[in-house]
Design goal:
- It is a single chain.
- By secondary structure, this protein is an all-alpha fold.
- The chain has one domain (about 5-125).
- Helices cover about 65% and strands about 0% of the residues.
- The chain contains six helices and no strands.
- The protein starts with a helix and ends with a helix.
- The mean pLDDT is about 95.
């Protein structure tokens, strides 16, 4: 696979890995990882405002399970893409676009994943 493909897979692992960790942490402890001190102590990231804006409680059980489910799907699709599985390119593109709501890091990282996937050397895999 082209170096850009490995860069995309690495970003998928970071994004999906963090969301899986944070979602499981939230299910087990009752809350997502938040800063312990400073001006943002106990506050969720900017993504929580988007989730609230569509009428969901960012700390709800549903949102915690969405984190876990999305992360598992993203990690599996990333592994399938790395393995050259047919159709995995499309799955990664769809999941990267679906992850744009995860402000700020997930938005930037998923935009990079999408941009990299549309490079001619990787687009041919789609």
């Amino acid at each position: 696979m082209h170096w850009a493909g490995w860069a995309a897979v690495a970003l998928i692992a970071v994004i999906g890995g963090w969301m899986l960790f944070d979602g499981i942490h939230a299910l087990l402890t009752g809350d997502f990882v938040t800063p312990r001190s400073g001006t943002h102590a106990g506050q969720l990231g900017p993504w929580a405002n988007l989730v609230s804006g569509v009428g969901l409680d960012p700390r709800s059980l549903l949102v915690k399970w969405v984190f876990v489910g999305y992360a598992v799907g993203y990690l599996v699709s990333g592994a399938a893409f790395a393995a050259g599985t047919p159709g995995a390119w499309w799955a990664v593109v769809v999941l990267a676009v679906c992850g744009l709501w995860y402000l700020p890091f997930g938005t930037v990282a998923n935009l990079v994943v999408v941009a990299v996937l549309f490079m001619p050397s990787l687009r041919a895999r789609g």
